[in-house]
Amino acid sequence: MSTVTITAADINKLRQATGAGMMDCRKALTETNGDFEAAIDWLRKQGQKVAAKRSDREAKEGVIIAKTSADNKTGFVVCISCETDFVSKNADFVAFAQTIADAAVANNVKSAEELSEVVINGSKVADMINDKLAAIGEKIGIAKFERVEAPYVASYIHGAYRMGVLVGLSTEAAEAGKDVAMQIAAMNPLAVDANSIPAETIERERAIVVDTMKADPKMAGKPDDMIAKIAEGKLNAFFKENNLLGQAFVKDGSITVEAYLKNAGNVTVTGFKRVALG
Q1: How many C-beta atoms lie closer than 10 Å to residue 124's C-beta?
Q2: Which pLDDT value is given to residue 51?
Q3: Is the same domain home to 7 and 31?
Q4: Is residue 67, in this structure, part of any structural domain at all?
Q5: Is residue 175 in a domain?
Q6: Cα–Cα distance for residue pair 34/265, rounded to 1 Å
Q7: In this structure, what are the phi and psi dihedrals at residue 215, rounded to the nearest 5 degrees?
Q8: Whose C-alpha in 26, 35, 114, 134 is 20 to 30 A from the C-alpha of 107?
């Protein structure tokens, strides 16, 4: 029995994150005592194909700018959040976000906190944000900040400033960088390769697969070792779909991203960041 009060706001948040129905979200939160991430897992274990969003990389509305330094060795993604798309689509607000992103590049900042202290034309970024908040009447801020360093960094902004991608490469390769950044935007990989997927993510996925299979009437009576073997097969498919190098290349589905990069001159991906609005 849950000891936590489940509010309508909690239910709506889970609905927005997963696309599941209201009653299912209420049940999931009740069963998990209000634990948001556990509620997502609970829904998945019931066989629901939820759109489990990664809240650590997303904001509701705002403008996302992805830029690189002049030498293309450092990339920055800055998300200036706001409450409504009316504001995020405003040309003045987009220009405001561009100014802050330019300051991040010019001052080679390492964090959102450092960016807040940068001075632009005599004013700190933090003060500029407060002034803008007062002017437009919406809560705004530096919602996300990401940085990538590599021998060559490519940046990509998708849509109307709704997603920004940085990809670090082992060598200068502008075309490959753009193609891989677009791949990351479209396919949202978890890691560069299968070995880089965090162990906790793998164990979480394994538990979901096993529990889902055990709940399937068709698997009733099957020994645990058989279920485990089938689960590993499903996990292998998960690895392929969620690691960048193993994914089918979006511009040519007959080859993987790894093969594309090899053909492009044995280019290596050193890392990437993908930031999207919710």
Answers
A1: 14
A2: 53
A3: yes
A4: yes
A5: no
A6: 50
A7: -85, -10
A8: 134
